[in-house]
């Protein structure tokens, strides 16, 4: 019941010895994540004690992979060093790099996402909360104690809304939750996650959270229409954003009618996605849709073949 991250994942933390790295490494370990090492060339050879676990510090990602078999790295380095950190991880052959850092220059993000793709490394982020497979592993800053394992897949641009939907649907639980980040350039898109959840036999329903700006949600709507058979429920942040003003993430740029919350909602609904007006209403739509799916009816009260069940 997972995409991208499982209990078998072995995680390195680039920037583990910094303040944020230390704090969130401790939280990841508490969530059951197999953190096998940190990376800091100036502190190589040391160990850092986290309660009952001593985590070694390596001089490079390559050394960490060679010593531990790590296949995931979480990047907590400052913006000026993020490009170098991700390129180092890709050169070392890491399979997944979760880039938490915000404030990375767009030209750096363009460079390292393209480079990572050429090396076969998947990037989550940048400027993201990371991803969690509840009960198995947590790579990033998502709180691990607000939900449980279940059969909902969640992909979101917004960290805060990721947490809220996880909490609102905590009684149902999640297969995986992926915060892709809201910058203009991200390594993993809504479409990537939709495809992964569609292929995951243990994900029953997908929740997709978007926001104003760009056309990622419209492109995701087209993909859902043509390729996704599982029910999808959506939410778009930004309906109350003042006209003509950039809001929230760096990617939330609206030009004319393109990128507005209304345009995104209409595109998703045309693809068969139910879209909530608030996070709470979105959670209610998820619960109602699960009830109808499990009862063998569609949201309009008919069976899957369109006949009246009565």
Which key features would you list for this structure?
seven-stranded mixed β-sheet; alpha/beta; globular; 9 helices; 34% helix; 310 residues
**What is the averaged pLDDT score?**
91
The assigned structural class equals: alpha/beta
Order of adjacent strands in the largest pleated sheet: 3-4-2-1-5-6-7
Q: What kind of sheet is the major sheet?
A: 7 strands, mixed
The beta-strand count equals: 14
Description:
By secondary structure, the protein is α/β, with parallel strands linked by helices. The chain has helices at residues 19-30, 61-68, 79-92, 106-119, 159-168, 190-199, 216-227, 261-270, 279-294, and strands spanning 10-14, 34-39, 47-50, 53-58, 72-75, 96-99, 122-124, 130-133, 137-140, 149-156, 174-179, 205-211, 232-237, 274-276. The strands form 2 sheets. A 7-stranded mixed β-sheet has the order 3-4-2-1-5-6-7, sandwiched between helices. It has a 7-stranded mixed β-sheet with strand order 9-8-11-10-12-13-14, with helices on both faces. Helix 2 crosses helix 3 and helix 7 runs parallel beside helix 8. The longest helix has 16 residues, at 279-294. It starts with 9 loop residues before the first strand and ends in a 16-residue tail after the last helix. Residues 301-310 have low confidence and may be disordered.
